[in-house]
Amino acid sequence: MGQSAREEPKWRRRAESRPDEILDAALVTFEKDGFDAARVEDVAKKAKLSKAGVYLYFDSKDAILRGLIEREVAPVARNLRAVAEAGMDDPAGALQRVAAAFTALVNDKRKLAVPRIVLSVAARYPDIAQYYRENVLEQGLSAIVALIEAGVAKGVFRPCDPGIAARMLFGPIFVHGLYTHFLHGDPGPLSPAERVKAHTDILLKGLLASR
Amino acid sequence: MGQSAREEPKWRRRAESRPDEILDAALVTFEKDGFDAARVEDVAKKAKLSKAGVYLYFDSKDAILRGLIEREVAPVARNLRAVAEAGMDDPAGALQRVAAAFTALVNDKRKLAVPRIVLSVAARYPDIAQYYRENVLEQGLSAIVALIEAGVAKGVFRPCDPGIAARMLFGPIFVHGLYTHFLHGDPGPLSPAERVKAHTDILLKGLLASR
Amino acid sequence: MGQSAREEPKWRRRAESRPDEILDAALVTFEKDGFDAARVEDVAKKAKLSKAGVYLYFDSKDAILRGLIEREVAPVARNLRAVAEAGMDDPAGALQRVAAAFTALVNDKRKLAVPRIVLSVAARYPDIAQYYRENVLEQGLSAIVALIEAGVAKGVFRPCDPGIAARMLFGPIFVHGLYTHFLHGDPGPLSPAERVKAHTDILLKGLLASR
Amino acid sequence: MGQSAREEPKWRRRAESRPDEILDAALVTFEKDGFDAARVEDVAKKAKLSKAGVYLYFDSKDAILRGLIEREVAPVARNLRAVAEAGMDDPAGALQRVAAAFTALVNDKRKLAVPRIVLSVAARYPDIAQYYRENVLEQGLSAIVALIEAGVAKGVFRPCDPGIAARMLFGPIFVHGLYTHFLHGDPGPLSPAERVKAHTDILLKGLLASR
DNA sequence: TATGAATGAGGTTTCATTCAT
DNA sequence: GATGAATGAAACCTCATTCAT
């Protein structure tokens, strides 16, 4: 109240929040332009920092990318595992919930940008590819695989290859995200929830032990 | 002896084959390094041409990419359509054959490189994204959609959203390709044929009208 | 106990010793990396100060260099003059003592670093070159020149060009220092004292009036 | 004749001479500004080339330096050795001729720039220091050492440490060069030839076996 | 007095593209 | 048709220096 003349120091002394601000800016910039075409200066500008300022917090452009991946990756993996593990005694229901969670994730263009970037730089930064694979993909896959195996063991699901089943869960959602977000493909008339339902209807019918 | 006047022309007129040789080289180079990191000089070297020589056949680096996409794209789309259309009266069998064809395609790392590159430059070259979407993705999707719809009409398949079903066909195969080729993920123990079978088993069970 | 109000001042008022600490640090850093490659931050770190702290005491990087030269230079010149002047009545003995003193000086890599730095920045900072020349070189030379001239006047030395003689005293010692310290040349088997002796033996035999 | 309008193609097609032109330009630029302060762009400009053009012939700024050292070094070493070796049967005369040759060398500011540069970057590029030491200094020294030893063996010179004697030959000349060229010290009234004479007079008197 | 945070200016290097031959 | 030579434009990164606290 009354101190309206000093609303915001505008900058200074926010070292703690800087790395995150830079990563936020980088995510947006990399998503828009791709890693190579993105200029560090643009990241800096969006983070309201000078170019040199960025280098106070990250050693190099690819260190920013690494930081970004590391920050973005953990929650995704954690999220998927949690949903999967929470439903081990109701595999069919859990499958639907995982599909819904993954759909929500993929619907967020910013979140989907990360695997796209990883994919495009994987050849040059194998460590990034490896990190992503081990910390997201294998985590997610193994969680679903466990879920499917549990379902099979319970007799809820027919015997099947759980890796294939897992890909049948994630694959369609992921490609739909790429198609609509990055290639501007027509998302179709269904709402996300309807898509999840249509998808899991078919998938579960394919998986469930008859009667 | 005596043919001293015609020792060996310094260069040969092979203008006709040149563009293709350049595109071959570009495909390999782009696949390895990504579009941005790939240097025109490397493409030239691999095509056994000077850097300037490349510019006799292509106006710019992204023109090469456009040429590449145009060349690679048509056969893929045509192929998938053909398989799908040839099986309109046996939708289930056709589905399996499409899955097999698409698996074969995706197994070829070079072929899979094209969509990966498209994805990574889509933001900067919207025309490329559009071209790819219209000429490959929508072609492929619509062919499968038609197939599914035919199946539903015939009563072979249950009523379902054909777009979703199509993504359930392509998605798992595509992500498996990305995962194994570009992120060096474990391809798992199944042979391609076994993967196709496991995949279509589940998918068809999910789609087929009971009884 | 009980002195909680004075636990430890975060920083101490040691303004007086600071400039010297900075110069010490600068000497080491400049010696190791050269003036250009040395970073102010490294000087600061070695002086246990923040980068900004250095600027409390010196206006700029080259001001540090100037300060360094000023501090290092006076004692050297004074020392050489003193030795020379103390021996005006025994020119031959004084020559030997000057050689010994200069050898001791040059043996100290840190001390030798100063002229090396001066030499490398002389073109950009003519004032530094001038300062060094006037306050060290000309001082040292003139002292020796006076010594030689005294010797000649006394009849102890043959008539000779005293500037040349002076260079014959300093030159060999100086280049030996450069060679061994900065180019890692083999210092040879002789001890410093033996080098001084061998050197002055020849030099004196060359200078002394026969009989 | 009559084609006065096309005097000089101005550039193009002189790849062969380029490296040398660049090294010439670099020598001048490095001599003037020192290695660090010299900008590649200035070297380029002086060589009448674009900045990028320089990189067609040299991989990096320090590659230019290396090239420069390599080019400048061989003739110097060869020259000194030749003079020394040509006079093995007249050591005293040869010593004078070596002194004269070295004086001529050092009188050339451009030539003297090389060791100055080497000295200033030695810490950062140890290979350059080593190269210079092995290919110039040790060559020169060993040639003179051999000469002195020959003189001693012949009974022309008194027994003495030849390394010291060699430094007494080179040292004074070298420091005089540094002093006058780079610190703008007063070269004194003597002509180069007179300096050589004054120098070798003393040195030879110091070295020669009496009668 | 002391410093963490910030930046402007500039340097090296790269590369798509052009052009004379 | 083919290329060696050349360059403009830009990108990454560094560092001396400043300033609010």
Return the domain count of chain A.
2
Structural class of chain A comes to mainly alpha
Helix content of chain A: over 70%
The gyration radius over C-alpha positions of chain A equals 21 Å
CATH level-1 class of the largest domain in chain A: Mainly Alpha
Could you characterize the architecture of this molecule?
The structure is a homotetramer of 211-residue chains. Chain A is mostly helical and 211 residues long. Chain A is 73% helix and 0% strand. In chain A, helix 1 (18-37) packs antiparallel against helix 2 (40-46) and helix 4 (61-85) packs antiparallel against helix 5. The radius of gyration of chain A is 21 Å and the shape is elongated. Chains in contact: A-B, C-D. The interface between A and B is large, with 56 and 55 residues. Chain A binds a DNA duplex (21 and 21 nucleotides) through helix 3.
List keywords for this structure.
DNA-binding, 211 residues, Tetracycline Repressor, domain 2, 73% helix, Arc Repressor Mutant, subunit A, homotetramer, 2 domains, mainly alpha
